[in-house]
Amino acid sequence: MLTHDSGDLTKEERMAYTTAVNCILKAPSKLPAGQYPGAKSRYDDFVVVHMNMTPSVHATANFMHWHRYYIWAYETALRTECGYEGYQYVSIYEVYTK
User: Is-above-0.70 flag for pTM?
Assistant: First the structure.
């Protein structure tokens, strides 16, 4: 997984990413409705999993590893389910705080 700063996106890359996110927002949830009633879309799946895992991940040594895996899983869903060919972009704050 490579990290790419969102500020470096070209117009075409921004449009491709936005299209993929809109696709995953419209795709139905893959989680069991009885266990995760709030998850209506694939995007919601990632939100619900993050919310449920927060107590057991955020204050542990696994924090960084789990989030790297989580971001990889989200990026993989964008690619495999929505045909996205780019990367998951982040804001590299050090670039903007100097």
Answer: yes
Q: Give me the amino acid identity at 89.
A: Y
Going 19 to 75 to 1 to 70, the CA torsion angle's sign is: positive
90 forms beta bridges with 5
The model's pLDDT over 56-93, given as tens digits with 9 standing for 90+, comes to 888 888 888 888 899 899 999 999 999 999 888 776 66
What is the identity of the amino acid at 82?
A: C
2 pLDDT exceeds 60? no
To 5 degrees, how large is the angle CA 43–CA 45–CA 35? Answer: 150
Do the beta carbons of residue 30 and residue 41 sit within 8 Å? no
Between helices 11-26 and 63-82, what is the axis angle to 10°? Answer: 90
Going by C-alpha positions, the residue among 60, 53, 74 that lies closest to residue 1 is 74
CA 30 vs. chain centroid, Å, equals: 15
